[in-house]
Design brief:
One of its GO terms (cellular component) is membrane. The protein is of the alpha+beta class. It contains nine helices and 21 strands. The protein is globular, with a radius of gyration of 25 Å.
Length: 434
């Protein structure tokens, strides 16, 4: 069947829209065609000119949530008056992947133009164990207006961007070197891991996780999956915006900082045209894209490789089965960055005697140092091999400040680990890709 022409707003709503926003002639669409359009964009509703298309069940006049959604979409109608028609919508939807669910809650903002809100990943309780799941976000900002670049359509040149808080030009110029370069067969130019070079010197042992740069707390949280009944969501807050015509594209990936598992990815973005947001989209995948992986590898070159974690069973100094595979890419990374060294840190959980745990943590560190040697890594690249004794610092997520941690297996396991820390000795090293 063909799409319908929609129906008019109820008289009371039409009167409020005309008086409050100066909009008339609005048409409501809540049939299967409208639901398909909104669903394809990961939205509760989509506005195009004077037509509002609702996802299934989302047009609910007379209810608090329904009236809020309608009011927001009517604001989009007002924004589009006198402008070429373009899709506008909030990105508000739960989007499942195999290992969990992404909730995107990004609302369109007018001043400054952009999307504001949260992205949350809820791990599937039956998924793989992780003491810490982070959100790593890749971003590509395209200068459609050509204000920062010689020609329109190129990545934003951060050398020419003025910091809105300080008025200083080029404070985030470090992003330029982190960006993918558009090499043949690789990622398009302009993608980078979202971070703040102005606050993080090149070569620092930085984490690629978004919240390490934009603040931990509030809507910025690590997640975890310590057992089917001990699960916490990972989340971030963002408000991307630019003052000129531009395209903003993102890929937000949920990844275990300890198990290196990709739990899923959400690609999302929007355009800014004439000071208004349009063309919002969101979609999910089970895996990170090759574009994301290339941006992450450039991040590791500009800063340094993120820590690598190997887990152990109780009272054992040999890593759990499969953990050794986490070392596979390290020799290549060290070959590309001859100035990088590794620190090997052994840890134990809090059971047993303190002296026994010091000894166990050292034996674990020694065992992993031996595995690195077997992988062909020069002992001269190992800065230290040290046991740090017992700890519960790796199982703190989900514990209220000042509260005592439970001693369950999921938390204890988090601390039976060896951590490999990478460090640069040269701050101006070039980025060398695999």
């Amino acid at each position: 069947s063909a799409p319908t022409s929609g129906r008019a707003l109820p008289p009371d709503q039409a009167a409020r829209a005309s008086a409050g926003l100066g909009v008339d002639g609005v048409r409501i669409h809540d049939d299967t065609h409208a639901a398909r359009l909104a669903g394809s964009l990961g939205a509760n509703a989509v506005t195009l000119g004077r037509d509002i298309y609702f996802a299934h069940g989302r047009y609910a006049p007379g209810t608090a949530s329904g009236d809020r959604l309608l009011g927001h979409e009517l604001a989009h109608v007002a924004q589009q008056q006198g402008e070429p028609r373009a899709l506008q919508c909030d990105l508000m939807q739960s989007m499942p992947v195999t290992l969990g669910i992404f909730d995107i809650g990004m609302a369109t903002q007018a001043a400054p133009p952009g999307l504001s809100g949260t992205i949350t990943f809820h791990p599937d309780p039956d998924g793989p164990y992780s003491a810490e799941i982070g959100l790593i976000q890749a971003v590509n900002a395209t200068d459609v207006a050509g204000l920062t670049t010689p020609a329109s359509g190129a990545p934003v040149d951060w050398n020419n961007m003025v910091d809105a808080n300080t008025g200083v030009r080029g404070t985030e110029a470090g992003r330029m070197e982190q960006m993918t370069q558009g090499t043949p067969g690789g990622a398009p130019a302009g993608w980078m891991i979202d971070n703040l070079p102005s606050a993080t010197p090149r070569g620092d042992p930085g984490s690629p996780n978004y919240i390490e740069y934009f603040g931990i707390g509030g809507d910025n949280q690590y997640g975890w999956l310590r057992s089917p009944t001990d699960v916490g969501p990972a989340s971030l807050f963002d408000y991307p915006s630019l003052s000129f015509d531009s395209d903003l594209d993102f890929e937000t990936v949920a990844k275990g900082t300890d198990n290196q598992t990709i739990y899923g990815a959400i690609a999302w973005g929007f355009q800014i045209r004439g000071g208004a947001v349009q063309g919002e989209y969101a979609r999910v995948e089970d895996r990170a894209s090759p574009v994301f992986e290339e941006a992450l590898e450039r991040f590791r070159g500009y800063y340094v490789h993120e820590p690598v974690v190997l887990y152990f069973d109780t009272n054992q100094d040999i890593p759990l089965a499969g953990e050794e595979a986490k070392l596979a890419d390290i020799p290549d990374y060290l070959d590309r960055y001859p100035d990088v060294t590794i620190g090997v840190q052994g840890n134990a959980d809090v059971r047993g005697s303190e002296a026994g745990n010091w000894d166990l943590s050292q034996r674990r560190a020694d065992a992993v140092a031996g595995l690195l040697a077997l992988a062909g890594i020069d002992p001269g690249r190992i800065a230290y091999v040290s046991g740090f004794g017992e700890t519960d610092m790796y199982s703190e997520h989900g514990t209220a400040p000042g509260a005592r941690q439970p001693r369950d297996e999921g938390r204890l396991r988090a601390n039976r680990r060896v951590v490999l820390e990478f460090s640069h000795s040269v701050s101006n090293h070039p980025i060398v890709m695999p």
